[in-house]
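INFO  loader      accepted 1 record
INFO  loader      residues=235
INFO  predictor   begin
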Amino acid sequence: MSLDDCQKSENASKVLAQVRQLIEAGGLDAEGKLPTERELAAKLNVGRRALRRALDALEAEGLIWRRQGKGTFVGQPPDPAGQLAAQISGEVDPLSVMEARLCVEPELAALCAERATPQDVARMRRLMEHTLNARDAEAAELWDGSLHRLIARVAGNPILLTAFALVDEVRSNQQWQDERDRARSPDLQAHYGRQHTAIVDAIAARDAKAARRAMRQHLRHLAGALKKLRREGAL
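INFO  predictor   done
INFO  writer      dumping C-alpha cells
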C-alpha cells in the first residue's frame, strides 16, 4: 500500500470516528435525522469524499439509513406498515403496544439466535452500549429502538417482521414516548441494560430458548414499570 493510500485510510478512519461521536452525543431531532453532508463536512471540518466513505461504512453496519430527497437517519429504515400504524395509533395505548410486543418479539429473538452472524452480534453489542451511554431519554429511546429493530430484521421472517414494524410504528407516537420517558429512570435504565445483555448473550450463544425467555422477561418488566406508574398516578 502506498503512503497516499495509508493516509487516505487513516483519514477515513478518523472521519468515521468523528461521525460516530456525533451520533452518540445525541441532540438529533425526533426522527434521528443527521445534518446534510455539506453541513456535516463543515461541522467536522472534513472533506465531503471522506465523509461519504464514513457514511457508507455506517450504512453497511446498519447504524444509519438514507432516503433520496429526505436525508440520512440513525437506525433502521421504517417499514411500509407505517401507513396502517398511522391509522390505528390514536386508538392504541402503550399497554396495548406492550401486549403486542410480548406476542411478537420473543419469537423474533428466538429466530435471531438461530440466524445471527458474529457480525450481527457485534452490531447488537454496539447498539446496546449506545443505549446505556445515552445522555438523554430521547437518545436512549432511539438506540433502544435500533437494537430491537436489528434483532427483528436478523430474525429473517418477513411476516413477523411486518407485524413488528406495525407495532414499532405505533410506539413512535407521542403518548408512547411520553410514558416511556417517565418509565426510564437511571435505575431502570441500568436494569434494562442488563436485560439487553442477557438477550444478546443468548443470541450470541445461539440459544433460542434463552433468547426467547430473556426478551419476554425484558418486555414484561417494561410493561410492569408502565403499569406501576399508572397506578401511582404519574401517567
